[in-house]
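User: Hi! I'm working on a homework problem where we have to compare a predicted structure to a textbook description. Could you give me the structure for the chain below?
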Amino acid sequence: MYYLTKIDDRLATTPDNYTDGSVGYSRQPLIDRSTGSPHMGVSIAHLAADGHIEPVVHSFEVSLFVFSGEIALTMLGSTTLLTRDHCAVIPIGTTYTIRAVGASASWLFVSAPSEINDGRRQDTFFTNEKMEEFEAAEPDVRDPRNHHAVRFDSASMDLKALAGGADVNAPSTSPSMATALLAYSGIGVRMLIDQMVGAQLHSMFVVDYQPTAIAHPHDHPFEEAYVFIEGEVHALVDGELLVLHAGDVLWAGVGTDHGFENRSTGLVRWIEMQAPQPPAQHSYRFSREWEHLAQKLYGAQ
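Assistant: Happy to help. Predicted structure tokens:
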């Protein structure tokens, strides 16, 4: 099972439960229970210039990836300034507020599990409390007290740049497996949101496909969503060939066969989410390896 849609800012509206709890806030739902996903919700959120969201708390986990503008996120006794390519996790049961700093802002809003939209119970609560906003500062990625915010740096996807050592004073986290770029067969993966920054129910990362890069059809015991932000990629999803571009959004349910190939001469990049978080083993099941076993056991059918 899969679902394909597109980002279209004209479709963003103020959610009913935010009408009295926000100013200038709107969202375009992309993936939710109505599209088949119980484990994750994906939408594009917008705040008008100087708009804000009142103190709110959810019974689901949230992550943000800022696309444009600047927002001040206040939670857990501090205010963090998030600009383009900054990401943050808001743990379950954590009251927070968001304010647009100056101009309008937009971001990827991910919930895990998916929000309940059938009226059977409430999962978003405006607390009507007064939350003190502190001086907003960009997250210091080298400060060990920073547990919930990271920044995607496109330069971190450059294998040539990673071949040498880094300046000890460079504004990045100390090199470790937690910050490593996973690279194989022309594919690069940079983790952003996982247990290292407090997420327990989902993960988020950026994927690059160089020209000719290919991942053969496989499936997972968890859901995945892909927000395509650069280039053109061919995808084989449950036997159907799709050609995907920036602005397309794909969701693949548990057990959905999918594979990707970059047939172009340029880079392909997307933001990917997984929910629930993958198990320690057996995250991938590649079709061709099980087909190989069938061939060994039974020969040509």
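For your comparison, note the following. The chain has a mean pLDDT of 92. The helical segments are 159-162, 287-298. Good luck with the assignment!
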